[in-house]
Amino acid sequence: MTTLAAPVPVAFHINEVATVPVTIVAAGTDGGLPALTVEADPSVWESIDLGILFHLGWDQRGDGEVSGALPVQIVIRIDPDAVDPSELPADADALAAAVAAAPDDSPLRFHASWYALEVTEPVELPAELAAAGDVRTGFTTIWADA
User: Fold this and answer.
1) Are 98 and 8 contacting, i.e. CB atoms less than 8 angstroms apart?
2) How far apart are CA 145 and CA 74, in angstroms?
3) Which residues, in sequence order, are bridge partners of residue 13?
4) How far apart are CA 11 and CA 93, in angstroms?
5) Fewest CB within 10 angstroms: 36, 45, 95, 109, which?
6) What residues are paired with 64 via a beta bridge?
């Protein structure tokens, strides 16, 4: 995954009237398929979690958890049956822009067209360790191995 030059806000559709707003922070490929890292604030994460969006069924999650008290990052990969991956740009910034600019009725903007691979949140480190880097905790899904 490549971190974007600037985060890109996008709303994924849950149904015809409801959306889930996230921010794309990185993009690239996973297993040769377009993938995004999206960040959700805690209230949005709660909607994603409880709504089992992005194929995050309880039986599809590995060990680990996120508290949802801090922004949650979700790595998602496109379903090649929903969108032809060859039609999407390979460049990270262009991919994020294409998803954000897609029409509301595009499969690119529907949560079910994406599979969550990994869900993480930052770990707050003591001041003396903060400069050492970022630490994240969370879980992977069965889709990460598919």
Assistant:
1) no
2) 15
3) 19, 110
4) 17
5) 109
6) none
